[in-house]
Structure formats: structure tokens, C-alpha cells
Amino acid sequence: MKIGIVCYPTFGGSGVVATELGKALAEKGHQIHFISYSPPVRLDFLSGNLFYHEVSVSDYPLFEYQPYELVLSSKLVDVVKYEKLDLLHVHYAIPHASAAFMAKQILASQGINIPFITTLHGTDITLVGKDPSFEPVITFAINQSDAVTAVSESLKQDTYKNFSGVKKEIHVIPNFIYLNDANFESTKCQRKTFAPNGEKLLIHVSNFRKVKRVEDVLRIFDKVRKKIPSKLILIGDGPEKGNIEKLCRELDTCSDIKSLGKIVNPEQILSVADLFLLPSETESFGLAALEAMAMRVPVISSNSGGLPEVNKNGYSGYLSNVGDVEEMANNAISILQDEFVLNKFKANAYEQATKFHIDKILPMYIKVYNEVLDNFKK
Fold it and tell me: How far is it, in rounded angstroms, from Cα 135 to Cα 118?
């Protein structure tokens, strides 16, 4: 198949999943064309089956805000025509699904028929989508999609709840992971960089938006370090970074916290961690938690959204109500204070992650692709 993939190229989960999906499809012999305003951060190479097409938005003085959706639609028309694509797979409802619909109509007027599949990732439904001004467009774009997928059962139900006009069947296809059988012994020298005196290492990875509740991360860590010598590693950046710096001074924890900023592939850092903290207000899936589990790091998380579908309570980590810092800290301590328990949770975390291996998830996407193409030919 020749597939066009439309995604945001940033560090967010939707862009990561879309890019890794495209790379996995290319390895299976499919021709993948990424279409975005800059190369996806995880697109670290191009090959005979991987291509990138830039959506270039001109800066016209007439426009206060550049019409990206229109430019994207035009680019999709161009790529479909000249690369002879079989289908489009757009990640994130707005503006990608509506742009794909417009491109589909333009192409149909020229005698070219192409289906498009929309994957819902989270904030397009649970946050942005709640804005009433977007509701008619999102509902229409979802219903006009030739197939719709969501990354968790929770997100599927949220879509039907928030958009009563959506009548399209939504297929749940969870996010996935490449399991890394790295030699973990080789990371010990790096661990000493962060924990020179053998402290336990806690870690948090996010885009530092308010919904991630990074302040809770610091408060959990503060309680843990008072019981167990510990260090905290923060990976990522975003609007809450200033508040976090202020809070660490108030708690007097700054000397025990290492902020590393944005890292494209955090696996090497994750491999030396003992515990992953993700107390989010909501997570449509919790890809960061899955990436941690794949590196044998148990997870302390909230029980919101799709997280219970990823993190198995009492097995790969623990789930708590949003904002219950006390319970999260106590759960963290219960794991960290006993080496046998910690090692058991680490093994369980990896075992739980195997359920989401790319080899199990990729056939689910290919099945949807084939069904759409078969129905489109009828």
C-alpha cells in the first residue's frame, strides 16, 4: 500500500505514535509518505519506503492567522495525485480530518477517489473538542471519515459522550511500543551520574501542561525522599515549567531534582530509573507510562482516562484518584523500600508492556486499512 500519514511533528504522543507506525509499516514493505509542516521528531531516517512532504505556509500580511488547514488540504491533493496514494491516515481530529475531507472532495471532482482514516488521540476530543465552536466541524469530520480509531476504550466513550452527533463506529487500537532488550548492566555508570550515592531514581516525562499535574510529581517526590534517599529526573518542557521551579524552591528539593528538557528518545534515561510518576488529570492512553514500563520501570499514576487500560494496579504499579498525593507517595514508598518488591514490580511492568508490542498492534491497523480499501472499491 501507498499510505499518506498526516500528524503533528512535535514531541506529543500523537506525533510519536504516527511516526513509529509509519516506520513499522515501511519495514513491512508499504510506502509511507509523511505530510506535515516539519519533519516529525521521531523520523530519524528516510529510506526507500519512507518519504516526507513539507506543508509550507506562506506569510501573507492579509492573514492574522495563517490558513494551515487550507494549505494542508492543497498539499494532500498534490501528494495523492503525484504519488498515487491508496489511502490517507490522519492523526488528530483537527484540523487534519477536516483537511483530509476537503482534499477528498477536491480529488473526487478530478476523478480520483481516496479514503481517509482518522485516529483520535486525546486532547482533540477531551480538551480542544469541548470548545463548542469546534463541535460541528469535529463531528462532521469524524462521521465523514472512512474509518475511525481511538487509542483507548476510554477515549472512544469520551468521543461519544462529548460529541452526541458522532454516529461512526470507532475501533479501539491501543498505542504500542518497541520492546528494547538492551543490556541494562551497561547503564549503571550513567545511573551514578544521577544517583552518585545509590539513591532511588524517580522520573517524570511530559509536555508540562497543567493537565499533567507536575506539581503533584514534586509533592509526591518530596514525601518519598523524606523516607527513602531519592532523586527526581524531569524530562520535557512546557508552560508549567516556571511553576515547577518555584515549587521546588518552596519545598527545598531543587538540589535533588535534575531537569533534562526535551529528549527525542528518553529510553536510555528511563532504563536507569526505579519508578515513573504520572499523576495526570487525564490521559487518553498514557504512552509515557507504557514507554517506562517497556524499560522495566513501574508506574505510579492516576486512574484517569485510559491509564487503567495500561497500568495494572498492584502489578505494574499503582493507580490512585487524581490529586491523591498522599496515597501515590505511600504506594511509591511501598515499592521502593523493599528491593525484592521493587524487582518484582520491574519484571511485572515489562510483562505488562509486552501486551502492547508493535507486532500485536500493527496487524490491527493493517486490518482496518484493508477493510476500508475493500469497501471503497465496492
Answer: 16
Phi, psi values for residue 231, rounded to 5°: -130, 155
> What DSSP string describes 205-218?
ES---GGG-HHHHH
Of 50, 41, 94, 51, the closest CA to residue 72 belongs to: 94
pLDDT digits (tens, 9 = 90+) for 141-196: 999 999 999 999 999 999 998 888 999 999 999 999 888 654 455 555 588 889 88
Is 60 exceeded by the pLDDT of residue 129? no
Q: Please give the mean pLDDT across all residues of the chain.
A: 89
Beta bridge partners of 4: 33, 88
In eight-state DSSP terms, residue 368 is: H
* Domains of the chain as residue ranges with CATH: 2-176+357-377 (3.40.50.2000), 184-356 (3.40.50.2000)
Residue 126: pLDDT band (50, 70, 90) is low
Query: What is the CB-side half-sphere exposure of residue 172 using CA atoms within 13 A?
Result: 13
